[in-house]
Design a protein that fits this description.
The complex is a heterodimer of chains A (151) and B (222).
Chain A: H1 2-25, E1 35-44, H2 50-73, E2 76-82, E3 88-96, H3 100-108, E4 112-113, E5 116-126, H4 129-133, H5 137-143
Antiparallel strand pairs in A: 1-3, 1-5, 2-3, 4-5
Helix pairs in contact in A: 2-3
Chain B: E1 4-9, H1 19-29, E2 31-39, E3 52-58, H2 63-73, E4 80-83, H3 87-95, E5 101-103, H4 116-125, E6 128-132, H5 134-138, H6 141-161, E7 165-168, H7 180-187, H8 194-201, H9 203-209, H10 215-221
Parallel strand pairs in B: 1-2, 2-3, 3-4, 4-5, 5-6, 6-7
Helix pairs in contact in B: 3-4, 4-6, 7-8
Classes of the chains: A alpha+beta (151), B alpha/beta (222).
């Protein structure tokens, strides 16, 4: 009996902590940071690793805007995958809503990943991931952007 | 959607970028046209498309050589650019109204300089001053800082004398090309506003191709 009671008490405590934790994590929408999602396309000589690409993008941002500027940009790589043919890929980046032009300039300055020449360009900018990946069918066919299935 | 142009691209045989590949990538990026300006020799390969303008970029070591080459190529190619960099060559190029573009007046790596007299001549003769964004893509740190500084100074002069300016990639491969909106974002790095950058990619290149600023001069020569 006693053992069961102890376990029950522990569970109650855990549930309480869990609820409190949820309250702490919940951020009201008005206080959330405004962000933009950028759908981008990479064209390179070879297939490249997600980590190497992100490292190059960060290097480019540090080189252009420094540590302070990089912190203001708040860049995150949400998703990246190589296309089937291998030499190009598409991905989504997240950044602060007023730093889109800075991110664009930094992406344009990336000229090689792991010694392979690359060119990056932004296809679409949106306030939501859904908006960034939802393209008209014509555009989807042209750029072969198929992110909806992956997300 | 405005018509974007990139008027300084180098193709095969000077580089390893075949014309068809450049055409495909530039179309995908949303350009309305690119100009192939190989050094001292126009691209022989004929592509049946209004998209490609075959020009020539003249590289000279002295003013005399420059004059000679301009006379040689003028009238044979639709677009005549001069490989800038040296002070004297820059001056000679902008004084010649047959020249369409003074490419990278501050040199490909920011070693030259463009003074106010040259920019005034450029405005009078309709020679477009080119901002080479490829240099920003391929350099880092102190080198890039120097180039940005030079570009900022040139931009100040160009605004003052209202000379035509264009943004080009100076691409040597398909990976050096950048989409128009990325070019605009790069131009913002040295203080060019969005409107200026857009017109430097659309209206002014179109005007150069149509020789909008040259009409009176050509009548004179005829």
């Amino acid at each position: 009996m006693k053992v069961k009671q102890k376990v029950g008490a522990k569970l109650v405590v855990l549930v309480c902590i869990g609820m409190y934790w949820d309250l702490m994590l919940y951020m009201p929408p008005s206080l959330r940071e405004r962000r933009r999602y950028l759908l981008f396309e990479v064209m390179g000589e070879r297939e490249m690793d997600k980590r190497d690409l992100l490292k190059e993008i960060w290097d480019s941002i540090y080189s252009l805007y420094g540590d302070v500027g990089a912190s203001e940009i708040k860049l995150r790589l949400i998703e990246y995958h190589n296309r089937e043919e291998g030499k190009s890929g598409v991905g989504i980046l997240k950044c602060a809503h007023d730093k889109v032009e800075e991110v664009r300039a930094s992406l344009a300055c990336v000229h090689s990943v792991n010694g392979a020449r690359v060119g990056i360009r932004v296809i679409k900018i949106s306030g939501t991931i859904k908006g960034a990946t939802r393209l008209p069918r014509k555009v989807t066919a042209q750029y072969s952007v198929d992110l909806n299935s992956k997300l | 959607m405005p018509n974007f142009f990139d008027l300084n691209v180098h193709a095969y045989p000077e580089t390893d970028a075949p014309v068809e590949e450049l055409l495909r990538v530039a179309k995908r990026y949303g350009y309305a046209g690119i100009a192939l300006t190989n050094h001292d020799e126009s691209v022989k390969e004929r592509v049946e498309s209004n998209f490609i303008i075959t020009g020539v970029e003249i590289r000279a070591h002295s003013v005399l050589e420059l004059k000679r080459k301009v006379t040689l190529h003028w009238g044979k190619v639709p677009l005549l650019a001069v490989h800038g960099g040296d002070d004297k060559l820059n001056r000679a190029a902008v004084e010649d109204s047959r020249v369409d573009i003074l490419a990278h007046p501050c040199g490909e790596n920011g070693e030259g300089e463009l003074n106010h007299v040259s920019v005034r001549y450029a405005a009078a003769n309709g020679v477009a001053i080119d901002f080479n964004l490829g240099a920003l893509i391929h350099t880092r740190r102190s080198e890039r800082a120097r180039i940005l500084d030079k570009m900022r100074e040139t931009l100040k002069l160009v605004r003052k004398y209202n000379a035509p300016m264009i943004l080009t990639s100076n691409a040597h491969s398909i990976y050096d090309l950048r989409a128009p909106h990325e070019m605009i974002a790069l131009a913002a790095l040295f203080g060019m506003s969005k409107e200026e950058a857009t017109s430097a990619l659309c209206d002014i290149p179109q005007g150069i191709v149509e020789k909008r600023w040259k009409k009176e001069k050509e009548v004179e020569i005829m």
